[in-house]
Amino acid sequence: MGSSNAISAKAKAMYAKRLTDDDYSSLLKKTSVSEVASYLKNETDYGYLLADVKEGSIHRGELESLLKRDLYYKEVKLSNYAPSKEKGFYQTILKQLEIDNILERIKIVSSSLYEEISESDNDVRYREFCFNQEKLWKAKSFDEILDVIQKTPYYSIIQKYQPKNHENVDFVHLEKDLRHYYYECMTNNIDRFLKGKDKKDAMQIYLTSIELEIVTKIYRLKKYYHSNAESIKRYVDFSHSRMSKQLIDDLCNAVSAEEVLVLMANSRYHFYMDEKEYIYIEYYAEHIRYNLAKRFMRFSSNAALVFMTYIILHQIEIMNLINIIEGIRYGMSEEQIRKTCIL
User: Fold this and answer.
1) Which of 183, 249, 239 is nearest to 218 (CA)?
2) Which of 70, 89, 174, 197 could be joined to 193 by an S-S link, Cβ 3.0–4.6 Å?
3) pTM for this prediction
């Protein structure tokens, strides 16, 4: 992707404007959402995002929505630099947003609380979507959602889960099939657009993300639902995992969430475990992704790799900010909130 040097240069320039250690230290000392918004608006590169916001009256949900919107804006901004023949690679990452929007709408129309959910809760407009987002938000049934996505690649997947005779939507398997479709799109595009070491590195980044997501799902299923191996294998898509069959079987057959962590501590991921306190699974999974992405951002000049790593690093920064906002909301101490952030 030599012709995409502009993407690499732009992504590195955007990464250079990331939050610093001093920024995080300042943010962690804030005691209200308004103070966080004010600091981001006046002291960081998020100023443009909050230019029209009155910091004194902004609420938690509004600020979090704006931050998630920034992630989308940055993805689109970078993809616009791609030559037309390569846009397919850079726009594939937007499919995750399309899938998330569809799944969210299906959850809403399938919920008994549907009438109580505000139509204006989701106010981020994604112009690059392959379906009409406004019509999706107005859909009031599964059939209406199918009408909206009829000419998209999602239709054939979602149609299979159309509920009959007032049955509940099989949401678990629907989500699994959509995630599988997305994994296929990403890995096929890496295979198509990249070569040699760049392809190998991109696959390492992406497949590592998938495997960490798998481990996190298994941990949650064990911890909160005490799921057995059979139900885990129905729920989790292992098709893109490089983990051995033995490790997958051991994870699925683990008697507890704690045993999942022990297995991962002894795997090539080497999850660190404190003697007194089991790890916060999402934190360590994201920490591995963060360090991997940071290394490639620093040493790679390949546009696709730099793009992928920038998106990961920006996602983690947004996650940090949302954790800070949530921590302040629940009255957590500065030290408690710091432990939820990848710094």
Assistant:
1) 249
2) 89
3) 0.87
Residues 22, 1 contacting (CB under 8 angstroms):
no
Residue 274 is predicted with a pLDDT of 57
> Taking residues 83-103, what's their average pLDDT?
88
Among residues 101, 100, 75, the alpha carbon closest in space to that of 90 is found at 75
Distance CA 225, CA 169 (A): 20
User: Amino acid identity, residue 54?
Assistant: K
- Token couple for 207: 């497949």
Question: Angle between the 60-79 and 303-329 helix axes, to the nearest 10 degrees?
Answer: 180
The one-letter amino acid at 299: F
The predicted-structure confidence for 311-320, as pLDDT tens digits, reads as follows 999 999 999 9
Confidence at residue 126, expressed as pLDDT on a 0 to 100 scale: 64
Q: What's the residue count for the chain?
A: 343
CA-based nearest residue to 27, from 1, 14, 46: 46
Q: Mind listing the pLDDT tens digit for each residue in 240-296?
A: 999 999 999 999 999 999 899 889 888 888 776 554 444 577 788 888 999 999 999
